[in-house]
C-alpha cells in the first residue's frame, strides 16, 4: 500500500471514529435541568407581587351585549371567493361550506347560548394564582370516595386549537363508571393563555415552564402523586412533568407519541427497510411509507411555522374576527381528524363532531380573546432557548403508555419511543380516530387509559 493510500485510510478511520464519538455525545442521555419553581410570569415586577393561594369557584358567564355583538358580526354580508372547481378542504376551509357554519352559529347556536353556557358549567370550574398568573381549571373531588374502587388523581391536558371542552364526554367515564375498578379525581387546566387562564406577560413561558406551573397546581390541590393523560401540547407538557418531576407522577399516558432527535431519524430510516421487525402486523401504514408521512407533515404544518415566528400577527388577524377564527380553527378539526376529509366539500366536520360541540370550543377562544396568547406557546417552545434544554435527551423513567390513533398527524415507533421513555409498559394501535381522541372517541381513549392504569397498578402493587 502506497504512502498516499495509508494516509487516506488513516484520515478515513479518524473521521469515522470522530463521527461515532460525536454521534454518541449527541445522543446519550443527559441530566435534567433545574427550574425555578417560583419563576414569575405576571405583569410588572416580581417584587411587587404577593401570591394569593386561594382557590376560587369560577362561574362561566358572559353578558347579553357580548353575545348580541357576536350575532351582529355574524349577520354581516360576507363576500368569500368561491372555491376552485372540484376542491374540498385541500386549499383550506371551503368557502362554499363556510356560510352554512355561519348561519348555524348565528341562527341556531347563539339563540340557545344560555343552554350551552349551562352545559359548559356542568363541571366545577375554579381559578387560582400561580407564579403571577390566574390559572383556570375544572376539578372534580369526591366528598365520599366510591366504595370498592381505587381512586387516583388525574391531570388531563389539552392542546391547540382545543380546550377543556375536549374532555367533557370523557369526564363521566372517569369519575362514575360502574364497570371500572378505578375512579379519578380529575384536574383539567386551561393552558396559560388559553381560555380562562391568563397568558404570560413576559417572554419565555414554553412547554417546559408550563410543566412547572401545573406541577405547582397539583401540589396546591393536595396531589403529590398523580397520573397524567394528554394529547398535542398536553402530551408534551405531560411528558415534561414526568421528566422533570418523576417522583410526582404515577404514570404518563399519551395519545401523541413522538420523539425527535438524531438517533430517532436513523432508527426510522432503518425500520423503513424492515418494517415487519419493528411494527405489529397490520399497523405498518401508521408509519410507512415515510416519504408520504413526511409530505403530509409538511403540508399540514404551515400554521406551526407562522405561530412559532409571528404569533401576534396572525393573532391580530383573528382577534374580533369570529368567522376568520372559526375557519382557522375548524379546518384543523377536519384535517387532523382524518386527512382524507380534505377531499370533502364540508371537510367531514360533522362526521365525528356536532356543530354545537365544535362551536363550544370556538366560543371559548372568542369570548376569552385568547387566540393570540394561545398561539404564543409555539413561539416560546420552538426557539433556541427551549431547544437548548434538550428535554428529548433526558430519559423519562415513570410508567408510560402510548395510544396511537391511526389518523393522527404523526406517530413514532416503540423502538424510538423507548430511548426516552425507558418504562414503556403500554403501547396500542387504533384503526379509527385522529388527533382529537378525547373529543372524537372518548370511550376508546378512556378504555385505553384504564388498561394502562391497570398495568401500573399491577407493576406497583397499589
From TrEMBL:
The keyword Hydrolase applies. InterPro entries: AB_hydrolase_fold, Epox_hydrolase-like, Epoxide_hydro_N, Epoxide_hydrolase. GO terms for biological process: epoxide metabolic process. Residues 57-167 form the Epoxide hydrolase N-terminal domain. GO terms for molecular function: cis-stilbene-oxide hydrolase activity. It catalyses: cis-stilbene oxide + H2O = (1R,2R)-hydrobenzoin; 1-(4-methoxyphenyl)-N-methyl-N-[(3-methyloxetan-3-yl)methyl]methanamine + H2O = 2-{[(4-methoxybenzyl)(methyl)amino]methyl}-2-methylpropane-1,3-diol. It is an enzyme of class 3 (hydrolase). Keywords: Aromatic hydrocarbons catabolism, Endoplasmic reticulum, Hydrolase, Membrane. It is a single-pass membrane protein. It holds the Pfam family EHN. The keyword ATP-binding does not apply. Its EC number is 3.3.2.9. The active site is at residues 232, 378, 435. It is found in: Endoplasmic reticulum membrane; Microsome membrane. It comes from the Eukaryota. Catalyzes juvenile hormone hydrolysis. Belongs to the peptidase S33 family. This is Epoxide hydrolase. It comes from Hermetia illucens (Black soldier fly).
Amino acid at each position: 500500500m502506497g504512502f498516499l493510500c495509508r494516509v487516506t485510510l488513516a484520515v478515513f478511520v479518524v473521521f469515522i471514529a470522530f463521527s461515532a464519538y460525536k454521534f454518541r455525545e449527541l445522543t446519550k442521555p443527559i441530566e435534567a435541568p433545574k427550574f425555578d419553581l417560583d419563576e414569575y410570569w405576571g405583569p410588572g415586577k416580581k417584587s411587587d407581587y404577593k401570591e394569593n393561594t386561594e382557590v376560587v369557584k369560577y362561574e362561566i358567564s358572559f353578558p347579553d351585549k357580548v353575545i348580541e355583538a357576536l350575532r351582529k358580526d355574524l349577520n354581516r354580508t360576507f363576500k368569500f371567493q368561491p372555491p376552485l372547481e372540484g376542491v374540498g378542504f385541500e386549499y383550506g376551509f371551503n368557502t362554499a361550506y363556510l356560510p352554512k357554519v355561519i348561519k348555524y352559529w348565528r341562527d341556531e347556536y347563539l339563540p340557545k347560548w344560555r343552554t350551552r353556557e349551562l352545559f359548559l358549567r356542568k363541571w366545577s370550574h375554579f381559578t387560582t394564582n400561580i407564579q403571577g398568573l390566574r390559572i383556570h381549571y375544572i376539578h372534580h373531588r369526591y366528598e365520599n370516595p366510591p366504595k370498592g374502587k381505587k381512586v387516583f388523581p388525574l391531570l388531563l391536558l389539552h392542546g391547540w386549537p382545543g380546550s377543556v371542552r375536549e374532555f367533557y364526554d370523557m369526564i363521566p367515564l372517569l369519575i362514575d363508571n360502574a364497570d371500572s375498578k378505578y375512579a379519578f379525581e380529575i384536574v383539567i387546566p386551561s393552558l396559560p393563555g388559553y381560555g380562562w387562564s391568563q397568558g404570560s406577560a413576559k417572554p419565555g413561558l414554553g412547554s417546559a415552564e408550563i410543566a412547572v406551573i401545573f406541577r405547582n397546581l397539583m401540589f396546591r390541590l393536595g396531589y403529590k402523586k398523580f397520573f397524567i393523560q394528554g394529547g398535542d401540547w398536553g402530551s408534551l407538557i405531560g411528558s415534561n412533568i414526568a421528566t422533570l418531576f418523576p417522583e410526582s407522577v404515577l404514570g404518563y399516558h399519551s395519545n401523541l407519541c413522538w420523539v425527535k432527535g438524531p438517533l430517532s431519524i436513523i432508527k426510522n430510516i432503518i425500520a423503513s427497510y424492515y418494517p415487519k421487525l419493528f411494527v405489529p402486523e397490520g399497523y405498518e401504514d401508521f408509519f410507512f411509507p415515510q416519504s408520504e408521512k413526511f409530505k403530509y407533515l409538511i403540508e399540514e404544518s404551515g400554521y406551526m411555522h407562522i405561530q412559532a415566528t409571528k404569533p401576534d400577527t396572525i393573532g391580530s388577524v383573528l382577534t374580533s374576527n369570529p368567522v376568520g377564527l372559526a375557519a382557522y380553527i375548524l379546518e384543523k378539526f377536519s384535517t387532523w381528524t382524518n386527512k382524507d376529509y380534505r377531499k370533502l366539500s364540508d371537510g367531514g366536520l360533522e362526521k365525528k363532531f356536532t356543530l354545537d360541540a365544535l362551536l363550544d370550543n370556538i366560543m371559548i377562544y372568542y369570548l376569552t380573546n385568547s387566540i393570540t396568547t394561545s398561539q404564543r406557546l409555539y413561539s416560546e417552545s420552538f426557539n433556541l432557548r427551549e431547544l437548548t434544554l434538550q428535554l428529548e435527551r433526558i430519559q423519562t423513567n415513570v410508567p408510560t403508555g402510548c395510544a396511537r390513533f391511526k389518523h393522527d398527524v404523526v406517530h413514532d415507533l416503540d423502538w424510538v419511543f423507548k430511548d426516552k421513555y425507558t418504562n414503556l409498559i403500554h403501547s396500542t394501535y387504533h384503526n379509527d380516530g385522529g388527533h382529537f381522541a378525547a373529543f372524537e372517541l372518548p370511550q376508546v381513549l378512556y378504555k385505553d387509559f384504564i388498561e394502562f392504569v391497570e398495568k401500573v397498578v399491577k407493576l406497583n402493587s397499589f
